[in-house]
Write a structure and sequence with these properties.
Shape: globular
Order of helices and strands: EHHEHHEEHHHHEEHHEHHEEEHEEEHEH
Largest sheet: 5 strands, mixed
Structural class: alpha+beta
Distance between the termini: 49 Å
Helix content: 25-40%
Strand content: 15-25%
Low-confidence stretches: 1-5
């Protein structure tokens, strides 16, 4: 699609465009998933959000699974942390991105150096310049975790306060681009010089201006989302709102984004020039809470009429759906959600609750949920799932479908 004329899209067209942009029309591998498949999905998404909560499986593994089916999670670790094809950076929260994108994120590191972001870390660096320099010198000698510093300077307290001064110094050096992060087993951070993670030929590239970087990132967000409102585009790489709105107008002028109206949306939309509108999307996948399809809750509600909140930090008695709930994408709709946990001690993926969205066919949805659970059980390494709770209007049907 191209041109500058405004277009009108039905709600169904918008969903199909968005899911196609996210890779849900790409065929799943018929054989073993290899690094080429991971690269293809990363090319669609642009980044993978990181999160340390391993209730089912750590979230960075899930978007690839949702689009490719079960694969060996160690493959992602090899690509990202052994072969250094991807690197950790602050983008949509902590994220993995291709190393070739490193120049596009230098503006954020420069803002950190100037004390415009991460002010607590900036103040620490100003108070303790000698200590920070010593920490950098130690990492220059060899990669290390925070506890391996010669003097990590631990302290008490909660969250930030509980982290050692050494850990904060490492974090500061990461925020300003001196250090990068690899991961050891258990998702433990190992800090190394960014020079040893991002290839020298990429580091030698000139840094784009902040405006140019923002415009390029918004363009990529548009390609990854297919059709989006301005807040969706800005949220994808967590760009500063006020500074980036003019860049959206520039992309419209350049023909990269096309002004659009989507049925049911209460705000203007933008259709990316590379967007494809298929007649159907035949997805069947459980989604991570941090999958780009649902990570911006306002967009998920607007696009799918799906209200989604994570209830990890909600007291148990006040939870509506459960502790760690994954949406089920079936066709081009989000039709259900399931409260899940991988019980590694017993070797089973446990289903504590399963809930249908209003107006869906319960038998059809339960059948789709079973298929998705079969795949997820393989992905998390249990090979089987079990209904272990009574919550939700699908658990009875799902229990009858449990593998024997």
């Amino acid at each position: 699609m191209s041109g500058t004329a405004s277009v009108e899209l039905s709600a169904s067209e918008a969903r199909r465009i968005s899911l196609t942009a996210q890779g849900f029309r790409d065929p799943r591998p018929t054989g073993r998933v290899d690094r080429r498949h991971l690269r293809r999905v990363m090319g669609r998404l642009g980044l993978l959000q990181l999160d340390s909560v391993p209730v089912v499986i750590r979230t960075q593994y899930m978007p690839l699974f949702s689009r490719l089916g079960p694969y060996d999670p160690d493959l992602l670790d090899r690509v990202a942390y052994h072969d250094d094809e991807w690197f950790e950076a602050w983008s949509h929260e902590a994220s993995l991105l291709s190393v070739v994108d490193e120049p596009l994120l230098r503006w954020h590191k420069q803002r950190s150096r100037q004390g415009e972001t991460w002010r607590g870390l900036s103040e620490l660096a100003q108070r303790e310049p000698g200590y920070v320099a010593d920490v950098l010198a130690q990492v220059r000698e060899r990669p290390m975790a925070p506890g391996e510093l010669s003097n990590p300077r631990p302290r008490g307290g909660n969250w930030w306060g509980s982290r050692s001064i050494g850990s904060l110094a490492l974090d500061w050096l990461f925020r300003i681009g001196e250090l990068g992060v690899r991961r050891r087993p258990g998702f433990v951070k190992e800090f190394d010089l960014l020079d040893r993670i991002v290839p020298v030929e990429i580091q030698a590239l000139p840094a784009p201006s902040e405006f140019d970087a923002h415009r390029e990132l918004l363009d990529r967000a548009g390609a990854s989302l297919g059709v989006a409102a301005a807040p969706d585009l800005i949220d994808y790489h967590r760009l500063p709102k006020r500074a980036t709105r003019p860049r959206i107008d520039e992309l419209v002028e350049q023909g990269r984004l096309i002004e659009a109206a989507v049925e049911g949306w209460d705000r203007p939309a933008y259709l990316h020039t590379d967007a494809v509108a298929p007649r159907s999307v035949d997805a069947c996948a459980l989604l991570s809470p941090f999958d780009p399809v649902v990570w911006f809750r306002e967009r998920a509600e607007r696009l799918f009429d799906f209200r989604y909140r994570i209830e990890i930090y909600t007291p148990a008695a006040k939870r509506v759906y459960g502790y760690y709930v994954l949406p089920l994408l079936l066709g081009d709709r989000i039709v259900a959600r399931a409260d899940l946990k991988t019980d590694r001690a017993d070797g089973v993926l446990r289903v504590f609750g399963a809930f249908a969205e209003p107006g869906v066919d319960h038998d059809e949805v339960t059948s789709g949920l079973k298929r998705a659970l079969d795949d997820l059980a393989l992905m998390v390494g249990t090979g089987r799932w079990e209904v272990s709770g009574r919550n939700g209007d699908l658990v009875g049907r799902l229990r009858a479908m449990m593998p024997t």
